[in-house]
Amino acid sequence: MTATTRATQMASTVHKLALMALHPPTILQDDYIEWLALVNPGMQHRGNYHLFDLAMRQAPAGPMVEIGSFCGLSTNIIQYLKRKHHRPDPLYTCDKWIFEGSENPLPEAAGVDHDQLRAYVMDTFRRSVTTLSPGDLPYTVEATSDEFFKMWDEGTHVEDVFGRGVELGGPVGFCFIDGNHTEPYAQADFTHCDKFLMPGGLILFDDSGDESDWEVKKVVDRIKRNPRYEVVAKNPNYLVRKRA
Length: 244
Description:
By secondary structure, this protein is an alpha/beta fold.
């Protein structure tokens, strides 16, 4: 890394920290979610907890969809807040558990390969969800978002990762987009969700805040100019509502 690059990154970091200090996120006060974040592996900005809570209180009745499940932290948070707000709507999630960078071999000293890491994460997801959302399991399909929405569009009957048969399809009340954060993938995920999202339905985009380094921010910038959508909240990630 050159001195110029290092200086640029440091300036960017200082700028982001200054903006965060000026506009701190709203933090949902919930002891159980704090425990979930402690014991359940995963990566969620604390501001998302408030946005999940808003979505569970405001989304129209209907199935909910999560794109990207990893080790189950966001899944368990959504399931908990559904129960807290008396939402009977089923949650459908999808993940292929193929991670960026997995095309490159791990160091020999790691002692494991990417296939073993993938199996470990999938097993962690199953154990996390069955332990922390007992009696309220999501319908989780091992698929990319493109594959998942193709099956959703066709009303396909599939077997989920818990061995249950389920029929996909129908209008959706809430979507959480947390898959590949590059612009083409995030745009495709939005296009898929938009096709099935009912009027008044909500979409939460992870890592979409104004200070984010991820390209999903570009997709949200376009949505903010789309008259068919409105911003419900920014904390710092964006929760948007479909007008029609």
